[in-house]
Amino acid sequence: MNRLFPLLSLILLMVGCSTYKDVVYLQDVTDGESRPIGQVQEITIQPSDVLSISVNAAESEKELVLPFNITPVMTNTGTSLDDATETTPLYGYVVDPSGCINFPTFGKLHVAGMTRNELINFLSNKLIDEGQLTRPIVSVSFLNLKVNVLGEVNKPGTYSISSNKMTLLDAISMAGDLTIYGRRDKVLVIREEDGKRINAYVNLKSKSLFESPYFYLKQNDVIYVIPNKRKADQSTISPWLSPVLSSVGVLASIVSVILSAIRLSK
In terms of pTM, does the model score above 0.85? Predict the structure, then answer.
């Protein structure tokens, strides 16, 4: 028994060191380190987005804003425009494949590529330049932004983007963090952009994460957390062997308690 305990302790020490290196994020960040924050990449409008646009003005122009607040499109809510469910209707301006919306009075306006604030400024200036309103108050919000988080996370699923920007860490937090089996050094981000599907790997263990063009997510991004070798090995071994291996730590603890008790009794 006395010979078994050091061996088990050595095994646990080796496993513990490996596990620590495998699961810790941002391992190369130092205390007090200061780095300039790059330009924040706000979400830009893309085809198939649904936008809520409202126009308000001073009391003297209340009647003049009415034509601009007619909701021209009604779609049903769902995981996407192509996979809608028959639930509560969702009203908004759908961006067509050419990147345009059909806005009252002005007709087709190209809005793809703009951020929310850029569209607000664009519409406000257009209303003034066209002599429609003197001091318009325009509000714009996205209605159907989402990302998908799959693989080795605690709560995989589809998550809505509620602000102008969302980071990869935000999405992982919403999905309940990675499981112990998820690879931190190779998280796959799949993005559809300019008619192409782009695959990129991001390393959560390095501070280079913050410089990655995939740190800030875009609508419809898919984040896939790849399983590590430990999980892959468990999927190939006998069902009865996996619980045995995972119980090594418990066994070592029991042995330690027993040996301590024996020493105290002498």
Answer: no
